[in-house]
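Technical annex B. To support the medicinal chemistry partners, we prepared a structural model of the target in complex with adenosine-5'-diphosphate, based solely on the information shown next.
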Amino acid sequence: MVSDTPLIELRGIRRRYGGQNGAPEVEVLHGIDLRIAAGEFVAIVGSSGSGKSTLMNLLGCLDRPSAGSYHFAGHDVAELDADQLAWLRREAFGFVFQGYHLIATESACENVEVPALYAGMSADERRQRASALLTRLGLGERLDYRPGQLSGGQQQRVSIARALMNGGRIILADEPTGALDSHSGREVMILLRELAAAGHTVILITHDREVAAQAQRVIEIRDGAIIGDSGAQPNPAALPAPRFDGMSVHGAGWSALGEVLRSAWRVMLLNRFRTALTLLGIVIGVASVIVMLAIGLGTKQKVLAQMASMGATTLYLYAAQPPEGGPWGVLSEGDLEALGRLPEIDLFTPVIGNPRMVQYGNASRDIYVFASNEQLPAIQHWPVAEGRFFTAAEDQDLAPVVVLGHKARKFFFRDEPNPLGKQLLIGEAPFEVIGVMAEKGRESGADYYDEMVFIPYAAGRARVYQDISEPEYAALTAASTDQVQAAETATRELLLARHGREDFQVDNAAAKVQAEAETQDSMTRMLGLIAAVSLLVGGIGVMNVMLMTVRERTREIGVRMATGARQRDILRQFLGEAVLVTLVGGSIGVLVGLIGGAALLVAGVPLIFSLSAMLLAFACAVGTGLLFGYLPAKTAAALDPVAALASE
Ligand code: ADP
Ligand code: MG
């Protein structure tokens, strides 16, 4: 039964081209009937244009007939889908082309390994088998040569080794000697004869009758029809047909991923300049996303620190000239007390602050002497670092006590471990140091407070500011952060009622800080958007280069398909290349972003790197690669193998 089923059986095969887009339909094969048994050495001979290559593409399952049936080992090939056809090509066929069709970027050994890659053979096994085959064909010394470094005859032997890599039960050789000198041509023919003797089915296509005569069976084709057949010659040593029940259409699997990245890496290196330019887009995109987000975060942090130090509830109240003109207003202590009783207002202090000569020992300096009540630390959210702040009682009793700002302490008491209890001269009056405030620092945006000294309001009025009778301004806090606006309104209404005119000004510092924080947020969003756009542009660059690559390597794609690559193998390969470019670009981008950010940091720009921003930028880059690499990869995977092989 098995021996009755021919390996290959064609019935009424026709192949027509054209017929669409107004092109006239041409029939190239006019009903071919052909049976070939396993182990035969067949030559198909005919003049150029007679349809030999068309027939071979059909036999090799690279192409489908327009009409007629093709049974392979009893199975109707028309019923197989693309992945199953790829399996059949891998398992059954080995192609040898007139133009060798080796992948120029890969070594001889790697070229031979390609079919096994798609069959899922392990890397070690692949390498071993490929080098054994090449050695058998006399190329043991040339394993790592690129096709360009080999002669025509050697390249053809590499392609024969490739055809044998997965077993090559059926060798389809299209004009294998056509491009070779007579000596190399003879060697190739000897090889094919040996393979036939070893049980391989060899189908040799040639226009040369002398070459054809070396086969056991000669089939003559003219104008798309068989006009002569010398008859089948059974081969007792024939290799069996592949078992369809063992058909595996699973992908080459993750083991091939390393191979995908390796060959992608090589393509990148070979096109260094182009790759570098493509990378540049991604690098700039990723680096700017990182730096922009870091700047945004840094500035926001600064605003937040400012908010914390100023308090997000602080209002300032100044005397002013009313808009309608007239004398300047006066803030009285009575006004403040009335304000303090408003439910929207929590704390308040009158303030007088002017530069005065302050002296300790030999050190003296004109500094701001800040007179307020005992609420100041609470209003400013500002702790005392050493000693204590003055009390309400001390304020009432006109106690001559002073609390130093951080820098003022450094100035007057650089070498003294404990300034508490020491006497400072403010103007003419002696004040005892009872505390030192914590450092506000630069990032608070209010480090001018660090230079000041702080005295009780009443003592200040009595001992330093005898000439000033009313508070210069007042600091108030709203009862809560969401009552800031209400507190401002209540303050205005109260003072308007008390003064009868708008001879004051309320400065809503809290609202300003909040507004600044919001501006900052929208700035960050803007910068982030710009950076994202540059990443997008980088992605388009990747797509552009990938489309170019696919076009340049169309024939390589054809070769890979002929040797059994599934569409998804091709998809994966080109997607792998796109992702590798963005992976490398993303890594360099992160590095450049860090370096650029560090430089800005040194230049005094507040910025905070965040790991999540870096991961985000990196992920975006790789995502861009996947997104923009998909279309070119899909294009590559959808190529028709015959057309791809025929491309320049
Ligand atoms: P051979 O290999 O015997 O020289 P081919 O099989 O390559 O011949 O081509 C046979 C005929 O089919 C030629 O006339 C050729 O022009 C035509 N042909 C081949 N491929 C195509 C195609 N893709 N579209 C249109 N015509 C084609
Ligand atoms: Mg041809």
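Notes passed to the chemistry partners:
The pocket of magnesium ion (ligand 2) is lined by residues 52-53, 174 (CB under 6 Å).
The chain has three domains: 38-64+90-251, 267-294+523-646, 313-507.
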